[in-house]
Design goal:
The complex is a heterodimer of chains A (233) and B (105). Chain A is mostly helical and 233 residues long. Helices cover 62% and strands 0% of the residues of chain A. Chain B has one domain: Ubiquitin-like (UB roll), CATH 3.10.20. Chain B is 20% helix and 21% strand. A 3-stranded antiparallel beta sheet of chain B has the order 2-1-3, covered by helices on one side. In chain B, a hairpin with a 7-residue loop joins strand 1 and strand 2. The chains are: A mainly alpha (233), B alpha+beta (105).
């Protein structure tokens, strides 16, 4: 999801170097998604592969958190979202790297290395935009305020997750919150930005209830395999 | 929010970030080689940009970034006085010396 959103910057980055950086991160995320969907397809054992899960599911069948499907916005929004998500992903991967499922633990160990860089890159940008000009400070603060209500969903747990936690396959997402909050608070204050206050937390993505943006995004993301089923390129 | 001065491009004359030269070390103990250059606002971002542009396919185990303005270079006009004198002094090359008989090369 987020890999696709980042790939929308390809050819539109603020400078060539950042264009390449964003595309690199996009590729990392798409690679992680490919591995996870491949593992999920094996577990499902219903004849679907990773491509089928990515390209042939409709909006309501998607289970992603809402924060990753929001439009890319301006560069400040992209940086703020990447930062908030990457710090979450870092702690999630770290915990999953000790999963009882060897495949999942392997995917997590690989993703963890990539995610450390995503955090470093987005955190450094957040500091520069926050501690930059009035314009960049204002834009990135607006982005943080706008995104904040989508962060709560990342730490919700449900029955499916709890069942996996019992088998030591997954981690309780709510247990990651304190570490995330600590890291995020630290960088936001370094960036001379203000922590958004308590707001109503949006939810729904995890149960298939999405924003209106996801359908539009999937239309673009899925058009090729749906128009030419089984196409190879 | 504290008020900050926003530098206008007209004040600094700059519309692009500073230029940095990138050197990559292809392996442990190997000499650093010049790879190219990147634009970046400061050293940390220069390092990250260099990583993304020149080291994303495992080309390097180490990176240097140096402000391009810190490079002191010889000029094309130097080519005579700087480099020519070496050419007509063959005794400066190791090939000038005859290898004594009995020594295997």
């Amino acid at each position: 999801m987020l890999g696709h959103r980042l790939s929308e910057w390809c050819g539109h980055g603020p400078i060539l170097e950042e264009d390449i950086a964003l595309t690199n991160i996009a590729l990392d995320l798409v690679g992680e998604a490919n591995l996870l969907l491949g593992r999920a397809a094996t577990a499902e054992n219903a004849g679907r592969d990773a491509d089928a899960l990515a390209f042939l599911r409709d909006v309501r069948e998607y289970r992603n958190a809402l924060i990753v499907e929001l439009p890319k916005g301006d560069f400040g929004f992209t940086v703020a979202r990447q930062f908030l998500f990457s710090v979450y992903a870092l702690h999630q991967w770290e915990a999953l790297s000790t999963s009882a499922d060897d495949d999942l633990a392997g995917i997590a160990a690989k993703a963890l290395k990539e995610t450390r860089y995503h955090v470093r890159h987005s955190a450094e940008w957040l500091v520069r935009l926050g501690d930059g000009t009035d314009e960049s400070h204002g834009r990135v603060q607006d982005a943080l305020d706008e995104l904040w209500r989508f962060t709560g969903e990342l730490f919700l747990t449900d029955d499916v997750e709890q069942a996996l936690v019992k088998q030591k396959l997954a981690v309780d997402s709510s247990s990651l919150f304190d570490a995330w909050k600590r890291d995020v608070t630290d960088v936001i204050s370094r960036a001379t930005l203000r922590m958004p206050g308590d707001v109503y937390m949006q939810r729904g993505g995890r149960s298939g209830m999405h924003t209106e943006h996801l359908g539009v995004m999937l239309a673009e993301m899925q058009v090729l395999p749906r128009t030419y089923p089984g196409a190879k390129w | 929010m504290t008020k900050k001065k926003q530098p206008e491009p007209a004040e600094t004359g700059a519309t692009e970030h500073q230029l940095w030269e990138v050197f990559t070390q292809p392996g442990g103990g190997k000499p650093f080689e010049h790879a190219g250059s990147v634009h970046a606002p400061d050293a940390e971002m220069a390092l990250q940009n260099a990583r993304d542009v020149y080291a994303r396919r495992g080309e390097a185990v180490n990176l240097w970034v140096v402000p391009s303005s810190a490079i002191v270079a010889s000029t094309p006009e130097d080519i005579g006085p700087f480099f020519d004198p070496g050419n007509d002094k063959p005794y400066r090359h190791p090939q000038f010396y005859k290898v004594p008989r009995g020594i295997k090369v």
